């Protein structure tokens, strides 16, 4: 699997990485986020929102709903599977949001299991000290290789 790693020395940098990453996203893209509690998944999604012209302060993981929708340059559908399971997404008609007119960002993507899309961006955040994080960016499936290569050159 091709991947590259960015260092984030602090919260603001993770926000910035997300915002820059958002510039490469297109409708129908799915960003699957991986990483422990506090690794910065939500921070990265706030960055995505920022990159789509939204106020990152408005971004919070959905807690009483299965998904939050933020309407920026493209709609951003924010999922967090921490407290729910993939089966809960069926009732929501998740396909409309995964393969629709916006971008889906999914925290705790390992819980997608059978609903894991064929093609997706993979963003894994790892603790590397109190405020230090490693952000690993890769992709799965068809159609993203060219944009991934551009991202890699751009982030390097
Ligand atoms: N480099 C960093 N990137 C992201 N968050 C950081 C960083 N350094 C410290 N933090 C802190 O870590 C926490 C990350 O929280 P959050 O984004 O909600 O994580 P997750 O969604 O992965 O559980 C926040 O309290 C944030 O201020
Ligand atoms: Mg979170």
Order of helices and strands: EHEHEEHEEEH
Low-confidence regions = none
Fraction of helical residues: 10-25%
- The coarse overall form would be globular
> What fraction of residues sit in β-strands?
25-35%
> What Rg do the Cα atoms give?
14 Å
Mean pLDDT: 95
Q: What is the straight-line distance between the termini? A: 18 Å
| Sequence of strands across the biggest β-sheet | 1-7-6-2-5-4-3
DSSP E strands, number:
7
Give the name of the CATH architecture: 3-Layer(aba) Sandwich
Q: Overview of this structure, please?
A:
By secondary structure, the protein is α/β, with parallel strands linked by helices. It has one domain: Rossmann fold (3-Layer(aba) Sandwich). The chain is 24% helix and 28% strand. The chain has helices at residues 11-22, 41-51, 95-98, 145-155, and strands spanning 3-8, 30-34, 67-71, 75-80, 103-107, 120-127, 133-140. Helix 1 (11-22) crosses helix 2 (41-51). The protein binds adenosine-5'-diphosphate and magnesium ion (MG). The site of adenosine-5'-diphosphate (ADP) has 16 residues, from helix 1 and helix 2. Magnesium ion (MG) binds at residues 41-42, 61, 80, 107.
């Amino acid at each position: 699997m091709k991947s590259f790693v960015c260092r984030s020395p602090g919260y603001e940098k993770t926000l910035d990485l997300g915002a820059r990453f958002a510039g490469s996203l297109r409708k129908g893209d799915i960003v699957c986020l991986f990483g422990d509690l506090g690794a910065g998944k939500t921070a990265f999604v706030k960055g995505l929102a920022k990159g789509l012209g939204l106020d990152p302060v408005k971004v919070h993981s959905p807690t009483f709903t299965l998904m939050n929708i933020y309407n920026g340059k493209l709609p951003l559908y924010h999922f967090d599977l921490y407290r729910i399971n993939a089966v809960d997404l069926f009732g929501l008609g998740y396909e409309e949001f995964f393969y629709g007119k916006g971008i889906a960002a999914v925290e705790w993507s390992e819980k997608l299991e059978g609903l894991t899309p064929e093609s997706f961006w993979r963003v894994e955040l790892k603790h590397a000290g109190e405020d230090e994080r490693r952000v690993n960016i890769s992709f799965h499936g068809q159609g993203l290789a060219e944009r991934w290569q551009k991202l890699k050159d751009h982030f390097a």
